[in-house]
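Reopening this ticket.

The earlier resolution said the output was attached, but the attachment link was broken on my side. Pasting everything inline this time so it's all in one place.
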Amino acid sequence: MKHTLLIRVLIGTVLAVLYCSGSGLSAAGKLGNDWQSPIALAVSPDGQRLYVAAATGEALLILDTGTGKILRSIDLPDPPTGVCPSPNGQRLFVTTAAPESKICILDATTGKLLKTLAAGHSATAPAISADEKTLFVCNRFNNDVSIIDLGSGKETARVKVIREPVACALTKDGKHLLVANLLHNGRGDADYVAAKVSVIEVASRRVVKELSLPNGSGSLMDIRISPDGRYAFVSHILARFHLPTTQLERGWMNTNAGTLIDLLNLKIINTVLLDNVDSGAANPWGVAWSADGKFVCVAHAGTHEVSIINFPALLEKLGKLPEKPDPNKAYDYTAASRSAADVPNDLSFLVGVRQRIKLGQNGPRAVVISGNRAFIGNYFSDTISVVDLAEATPRPQHWRLSLDREPSMVRKGEQTFHDAGICFQGWQSCASCHPGNARVDALNWDLLNDGIGNPKNNKSLLLTHKTPPAMSMGVRESGEMAVRAGIRHILFTVQPDAAALSMDEYLKSLKPVPSPYLVKGSLSKAAQRGRKVYQLNGCAGCHPGPLYTSQQHYDVGTLGQFDRGNEQFDTPTLVECWRTAPYLHDGSAATMKDTLTAKNPKDKHGITSKLTPQQMDDLVEYVLSL
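Inline output:
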């Protein structure tokens, strides 16, 4: 018995060594016990090294692209969000996320820290000019883009964009920077509600155009420019928020899309759906082009796949469609799209020009291409998948970044929250409607939990389990009940209770992000004055600290055209309300100031009608600082 046990131990040790030796282990970098969670990737100009931004590992990993071995692991001051090598391949620019973010400039070969630059709140998506003189960085929660002179290391401009810029790409001629805004910034009850791509003219340091995506577009995750500089491709969700959520079939609630942009004319060409008729492709994330322009690849974080799109074939197919149907042409019953306007609703448009490759890993987010190989970073599996684009039927290979082991309950819940595998036909995950770590998509949805025909604005899930009841009408008496009802009535499946229990733990673990309105972590002078206005004008009665909600229902005079006429609404927490616009149960207030002025004529949520303009501005500053 003892000998058998000893043999098993020895075999296990040998197998572990063999497994690690082919999965990234080397003298310079060892597989550790900490989760790395790859969130962004880049390849060196010579194609020999893969740079991996490890979010939870708070490190930059350098891998050999030939063997997958980890050559170096460089500790970073905060979780990394993006990585960009200089065109000459000598330096790396790594953004790290914090209220006062840092950009780490590293030697690309040795990993030595050369310099640290300052950036805004939760900096991400670094992009460098071809002459290596200018760096562009998205400051997600400042809603702006930093333009930094690399000679002096100083920021020369901050350009305001729409809302939560999470990705950017510099045109080949260096004239324009395209910025993907995660969310829209208007009212939720409007007929047209969609996020946009901001176009910054680099010379003038200003936004010269905003490219409107189709109605319902949101959760823009990545934007990349074709090698010839003529096109850009942006990944996003295309929500059908005007429909009651009675089913999921054929993309009834959420579809998953990519929008193609003509860079010569700075206009949208069209939007194609990445789903199939009976199989959603949830949560499109990273985008990459092959160097020859033949392929554009998209990672699907919810369905754990990568789409490989034959771009010339796609372009040809789009080019054959007229702007409007030709009345003199015989109706083609085999084609779903008769004109260009039909394409954003055509679930079969990519048939014949795209392959969907199942990776067998969990949470692919970032993707880059070098030569004929695509590298995909799988956030939850802690692996890099390698797909050979030259193969007729690609068979992914995988490199591990850490030891394979059982995740904690919180990580398991986060994984489940982002997994469209628990949704009927994979159309969406919980993160589809609650992107950004269970926050908001800023859309109104007609969920069936309080009847039909009365849409409500999506709420952040931060503090849901601490501030029952849940939903605007308080129809779920606890966060736990809301999670289980969401699985049944929004994902349309039945799951073992372990899935819901793990999501409970994940949601309970969420912490508020410090407000961008704070000054070095403290209230500004205006916010300090606003706190007094808050306390003296009835705000604290319904929104007392520390959770800033009484957890009661009130009629606050905000009934809209779709309400029944006698409703009372749950009092939301004001914690982190700076990132949850639009406001009120129907999303009819685009800004906090609108909430306290135009939407409060009878002083039913705070006595604000007699405040001076200065007092009102101070009050808004305080509330948005919570």
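Reporter confirms the inline version is readable. The domain at 525-623 is CATH 1.10.760.10 (Cytochrome Bc1 Complex; Chain D, domain 2). Confidence is low (pLDDT under 50) at residues 1-29.
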